[in-house]
Specification:
This protein is mainly alpha-helical. The protein has helices spanning 3-7, 16-29, 52-59, 67-72, 98-121, 125-149, 155-180, 184-226, 230-244, 248-256, 259-266, 276-286, 290-298, 301-310, 316-329, 340-345, 347-360, 364-377, 382-390, 393-401, 410-423, 429-435, 438-445, 455-475, 479-487, 490-499, 508-524, 531-538, 542-550.
Length: 557
């Protein structure tokens, strides 16, 4: 989930006021979840989207009633039914990282501002005022909390804090006058001023959060640059990694403040070898954004990663995290590719090291990271696939698939079948796959089903089915492969996937791939189909067969 979704969980309102508030606040928190650019949902990824009850349970230790603050200002406590929806947070620094506490407070304030806009649209002035008082309290608490743990802050930050506090006080006084006014015409005329003040508060708040996060990123960079202590450097890197998990916008801030440069400096010092895994993990997170990629290119990051991958003295954990960085920067989802020129210069060494890592992987996660990097590399051009053939990569990958301890999830099988699909364009690949019992594996992948029902896992299963069908279609141009597929009863399974939407989880991409594979096999072995299957799934145009199969999902009751 993106930081924007975190700040605005209920979605945008249609009102123009909401759009203005959304735009102002989003200046500080704009950005999509960088983890989406990874080619697979790695198990250790930071998941923010959780059940609302679970989030409440997690935040319960930090929750308290700010009623006392309201009473100190002689404000009444609302007794409306939706009072239970108040978002409140205490200053228990001992139970939470200071910066995380700040981000939680910022999320609460943003949510309250959104709710104020919604209540204002409905002219619920009493509620608007009580919520404004609460926002005022939260803003002051946030500023006080931050100033208690920050070592230094700029004059610009102090000025912005004063502007925000003054505007919040003005906002509270304004809404109080609205509550005391009974003249409907007067309230209508005051509403535009309230809207304007609310927008200004949101703007100042967004600017302050942006400045605070930049300041904290600078402090962490300074610690990493200047410290010779492994302990202090480790703490700074861990804090930096936590920040990267809060959204792409924070990754951009870190990259602009020299985060990539500082982290690669660590990776070039032997005295910090024990910190390489977490350092590389942080680099993988930052390199989801274009700014991070530019910094990686400037410091010859590809060369550093190549040195780490090819150095046998490093631990498997270090090699795995270096593979994760490679997987990130080679993701086919990325639109910026300036770094690829230097990558191609080192590709042979990188591919060789990754194949070796797949072969020697001691766990499913290590194999997943290494195979994901290889899968992404095969999208470059046929040169990468030819390298894999020369390195007997197909034999290694197929052997790994028979070890349920190593290839233990649909995510890993997704990477293997991606490599198979991309390598299947080479004529020499067919014999490699047949010798490694790869047709049997592809047949098994056509039955891929999620055991948990998890959305990400279901999507991975769909990709496995689709790519296995694509691989079969490409390989079946070889009569030997087509014959082996027919003997393994691939045709009945493909027909089942075409005719039964539930078997393919209603996936159109799986349907198209299965129709293509079925037509290729039907050419090589026409006797394997019944006449009705041939007339409906093979003989018509592909689009007509597709429409016929998708219409099977409709209910005619």
């Amino acid at each position: 989930m993106s930081q924007q979704e975190l700040l605005f969980p209920n979605g945008p309102s249609d009102s123009s006021l909401w759009k203005s508030i959304h735009k102002r606040i989003n200046m500080a928190f704009k950005g999509e979840d960088h983890l989406d650019s990874l080619p697979l949902p790695v198990q250790r990824m930071h998941l923010i989207q959780v059940d609302s009850v679970q989030r409440w349970m997690e935040d319960l230790k930090l929750m308290t009633d700010c009623e006392c603050m309201c009473i100190l200002q002689s404000k009444p406590i609302s007794i409306e039914k939706d009072e239970q929806n108040e978002l409140i947070l205490s200053s228990q620094h001992s139970t939470c990282n200071n910066l995380q506490l700040l981000l939680k407070r910022a999320w609460i304030i943003s949510t309250e501002l959104t709710r104020i806009a919604q209540k204002l649209e409905k002219n619920r002035w009493q509620r608007v005022h009580s919520m404004t008082v609460r926002v005022n309290c939260h803003v002051r608490s946030m500023i006080n909390e931050y100033n208690t743990f920050t070592r230094s802050s700029s004059e610009e930050m102090h000025q912005l804090e004063k502007l925000l506090i003054d505007k919040c006080s003005e906002f509270t006084a304004f809404t109080e006058r609205c509550v005391q006014t009974e003249d409907e015409q007067m309230l209508r005329s005051m509403k535009s001023c309230v809207n304007e003040t609310l927008t200004t508060v949101a703007q100042y708040f967004g600017q302050l959060i942006e400045l605070v996060l930049t300041h904290e990123a600078q402090n962490l960079m300074r610690q990493i640059d200047l410290s010779d202590s492994v302990y202090i450097t480790e703490l700074a890197i861990n804090s930096l990694f936590s920040l990267t998990q809060e959204g792409a916008h924070l990754c951009r801030i870190i990259a602009k403040e020299g985060g990539v440069v500082a982290l690669f400096k660590i990776c070039r010092q032997d005295c910090f070898r024990c910190l390489y895994p977490q350092t590389l993990r942080t680099l993988a997170s930052i390199c989801c954004v274009e700014e991070g990629m530019h910094q990686l290119e400037k410091v010859d990051g590809i060369l550093c990663l190549t040195d780490i991958l090819t150095d046998n003295t490093h631990s498997e954990a270090t090699h795995a995290e270096a593979a994760a960085v490679i997987a990130q920067i080679t993701s086919p989802h990325l639109t910026f590719t300036q770094h690829l020129s230097s990558f191609l210069e080192n590709m042979e060494e990188i591919v060789t090291a990754l194949v070796k890592l797949c072969q020697e992987a001691s766990s499913g996660e290590v194999f997943l990271l290494a195979s994901a990097a290889l899968a992404n590399i095969t999208f470059f051009d046929t040169m990468a696939c030819e390298m894999l053939l020369q390195l007997n990569a197909m034999k290694i990958l197929l052997a790994a698939c028979s070890d349920k301890r190593i290839v233990d999830t649909p995510y890993s099988r997704d990477q293997v079948v991606t490599i198979m699909a991309n390598m299947s364009v080479l004529d020499q690949c067919a014999s490699e796959i047949i010798q490694g019992n790869g047709i049997q594996l592809l047949m098994e992948m056509l039955f891929e089903k999620s055991s948990s029902g998890n959305t990400a896992e279901v999507a991975a299963c769909e990709r496995v089915q689709q790519k296995s069908a694509v691989t079969l279609a490409r390989l079946s141009r070889d009569p030997e492969v087509a014959d082996a597929a027919v003997k393994l009863s691939c045709i009945p399974r493909l027909i089942k996937l075409c005719r039964s939407p539930t078997e393919r989880n209603n996936s159109d991409s799986v349907l198209v791939a299965c129709l293509a594979a079925l037509r290729r096999l039907a050419v090589m072995s026409p006797d394997g189909l019944e006449d009705s299957d041939f007339q409906q799934l093979v003989k018509p145009r592909l689009v007509d067969s597709f429409l016929l199969c998708t219409n099977m999902e409709e209910s005619f009751v």
